[in-house]
Specification:
The complex is a heterodimer of chains A (298) and B (330). Chain A has helices spanning 2-32, 39-59, 66-89, 99-121, 130-134, 147-169, 171-181, 183-188, 193-215, 225-240, 245-265, 270-284; strands spanning 137-140, 143-146. With 298 residues, chain A is mostly helical. Chain A has one domain: ABC transporter involved in vitamin B12 uptake, BtuC. Chain A has a two-stranded antiparallel sheet. In chain A, a hairpin with a 2-residue loop joins strand 1 and strand 2 (143-146). The radius of gyration of chain A is 19 Å and the shape is globular. Chain B has one domain (20-270). Chain B has a two-stranded antiparallel ribbon with strand order 1-4. In chain B, strands 2-3 form a two-stranded antiparallel sheet. In chain B, strand 2 and strand 3 form a beta hairpin. In chain B, helix 1 (23-42) packs antiparallel against helix 7 and helix 11 (258-271) packs across helix 12 (276-296). Chain B is globular. Chain B starts with 22 loop residues before the first helix and ends in a 15-residue tail after the last helix.
């Protein structure tokens, strides 16, 4: 029983950051129709920026709780600077091209960003320990868990609700939904589609960077963190259905629980448990669990 | 498809399309192969090794091109490379089967057999879903290879020097002989690919890319064409994988990792789907860029590759092959 609880909590914390990252991926796909391989690179960028910001805060002798604000600012900085630059400077030249070709464009972006992060931050790992110490440990039953993990779960819930509310309850969100449905019709109704593209891409990248910034305390930030995250978030959005918020949530939970179960029950299977789930979902529900049926355009 | 579609009048401009008139291309291919083999005698070792890798990797990408003609791009071709590579290495180490040609063909056949059960399923998938399912399968393979201790886990394992037709390969000549074997096999496969691409079924594949519904109305089977293309791609990938492993003398799970698959897709896009020769040119370009940049700027070679890739997609969207393949450009 205790084992089951451990699996549940581990799975939930793993799912929470994964959900934040995958939500960004699914949003970018929904609006721009780009499956962004470089999404993991933005996650890494968020983590690196957070490491730099928090280290700077520590050197200024700021209060430890401010490190949380600094991590948030790191994600905002990445989204505000890099995202519009990428979208306006690169992606817009490829809109309307074959979606697999767009995957390759983002693959190129991924390769470029891998080396650029290495050039800027070097190959040595960074550690962000300050925020981790803030929350201490929480005892659940006989087991002790890191309090910070629960903060991540809360953050995921807040982010998920905020994105849902933003999309469904605000004027701007409804415009985005209109563009998701049909960019052409929205454009003919007077919607500035390229602005919506830039906005959606920026929000998507913000979510990737936010995930990166807030997981930075749990990992060692070093070259190669992006590679794993990309495939994980792909698995999440594919399982849930590309472009669906509920799908990303359920997909993240499935991936988180599958991984936690594998880690605790059969550690050998940790690496591929997630891909097996992804392959099975693709085989039986290729559109994912939550994909709405699409009207065929002629 | 009915046979009438494949028999236009001899001498008409479309004669080559009918699957006839390949004599010139076959002669050209064999001639070029002979020149490369002869030149290899005088080339430095690093160059023959580079060309061996380019030809073997080119074979793997050739499989992708076969699928790309039908409008789908696999993001898991690394799995075929790994299957072929592990087959050759295992046959060498565990079965004591050391013939290089036999190992290469075994790699292709095993990879084909492993892919066959998935082929009918994959034939229903298009676009991003095809890419993702092949990706998932290759990552499952990667996970398995990492964890199976008998296969060396994450380090993989080495294999010794193969023989050829019962002859042991001497120290000084082994690189050259593997080079010749790879070039000859690549030429044969390239010529077969050209003939297949221009055959009725090969043309049905291109028609699928244009409009599946019409192909079905005309009596062609889209799923059959896609299934066969996937199996052939697996054979090419396995063959290439076995050749790569024999030249490297080493095999590891990273062969099946998604970034490896990404490189093969890169070569396929760089070459374009119209020309077979372009795939091998693209593969050579990648090898040259890779070895020169890792020698001269080891920290930024991915950056260079990424920029190069963007440049190609932006300015040569149909690949290098479109520079000399006229005609069905659209």
């Amino acid at each position: 029983m205790a084992g089951l609880l451990t699996i549940l909590i581990d799975g939930l914390t793993y799912a929470s950051w994964l959900f934040i990252v995958a939500l960004g991926l699914t949003l970018v796909f929904g609006v721009l129709k780009i499956l962004n391989i470089a999404h993991g690179s933005f996650y890494a960028l968020g983590a690196y920026a957070a490491a730099t910001f928090v280290a700077w805060g520590a050197s200024m002798k700021w209060a430890p709780w401010l490190s949380l604000v600094l991590m948030l600012m790191a994600a905002v900085a990445v989204a505000a600077v890099i995202a519009p630059l990428t979208e306006r400077g690169l992606l817009r030249f490829f809109y309307g091209r074959d979606e697999v070709l767009l995957v390759l464009v983002t693959n190129a972006l991924f390769l470029i960003m891998e080396d650029v992060t290495k050039l800027v931050w070097g190959a040595n790992p960074y550690y962000v320990s300050e925020p981790y110490a803030l929350f201490g440990n929480v005892d659940v039953g006989v087991q002790s868990y890191v309090g910070y993990d629960f903060l991540l779960v809360a953050l995921a819930v807040v982010v998920g609700l905020a994105v849902w509310w933003g999309l469904n309850r605000t004027r701007q969100g409804k415009i985005v939904l209109a563009v998701i449905h049909s960019a052409e019709v929205a454009s003919s109704m007077g919607v500035n589609v390229s602005r919506v593209y830039m906005l959606a891409f920026t929000v998507g990248i913000f979510l990737a960077a936010l995930g990166g910034a807030f997981t930075a305390p749990m990992i060692s930030v070093q070259p190669g963190v992006s590679v794993g995250v990309i495939i994980l978030s792909f698995a999440v959005v594919i399982i849930g259905g590309l472009g669906s918020i509920e799908g990303a949530a359920v997909g993240a939970l499935i991936v988180g629980l599958a991984r936690a179960t594998a880690v605790h029950v059969a550690p050998v299977a940790e690496l591929f448990s997630i891909y097996v789930v992804m392959a099975i979902v693709l085989m039986f529900r290729p559109e994912g669990l939550f994909q709405r049926i699409q009207a065929r355009k002629i | 498809m009915s046979a009438t579609l494949s028999t236009p009048a001899v001498g008409s401009p479309s004669a080559r399309v009918a699957g006839t008139g390949h004599g010139r291309i076959v002669a050209l291919g064999l001639g070029f192969c002979a020149v490369l083999c002869l030149a290899g005698l005088f080339a430095p070792k690093w160059l023959t090794f580079l060309l061996t890798m380019a030809a073997a990797n080119g074979l793997v990408s050739l499989g992708i091109v076969g699928l790309m003609r039908g409008g789908v791009v696999p993001f898991g071709q690394g799995m075929m490379l790994a299957l072929g590579g592990y087959t050759a290495a295992l046959a060498f180490n565990k079965l004591g089967f050391t013939d290089a040609l036999g190992l290469a063909l075994a790699g292709g056949v095993v990879s084909m057999l492993a892919a066959a059960p998935f082929a009918p399923l994959l034939s229903r998938y298009r676009g991003i879903f095809f890419a993702m399912l092949t990706l998932a399968l290759s990552m499952v393979t990667y996970g398995l290879l990492m964890k199976i201790e008998v296969l060396g886990g994450s380090d993989g394992f080495n294999l010794g020097r193969p023989t050829l037709f019962g002859q042991a390969l001497p120290d000084a000549r082994v690189g050259y002989i593997l080079y010749v074997l790879t070039i000859v096999l690549a030429t044969v496969m390239a010529l077969l690919a050209r003939i297949y691409f221009d055959s009725t079924r090969g043309l049905v594949t291109v028609a699928v890319r244009e409009n599946e519904l019409r192909v079905e109305y005309l009596g062609g089977s889209v799923r059959q064409a896609m299934t066969i293309n996937f199996i052939l791609a697996a054979f090419c990938g396995g063959l290439g994988g076995a050749l790569v492993v024999m030249s490297l003398g080493h095999v590891e799970p990273n062969f099946s990792f998604w970034t490896t698959s990404g490189e093969f897709v890169f070569v396929a896009i760089l070459g374009g789907w119209q020309s077979v020769a372009a795939v091998f040119v693209a593969s050579t370009v990648l090898e040259v860029v890779r070895s020169f940049s890792s020698a001269y700027f080891p920290n930024t070679w991915q950056l260079a590759l990424g920029l190069f890739l963007l440049f190609v997609i932006r300015f040569l969207p149909r690949g290098i092959g479109s520079l000399w393949m006229r005609g069905n450009n659209r």
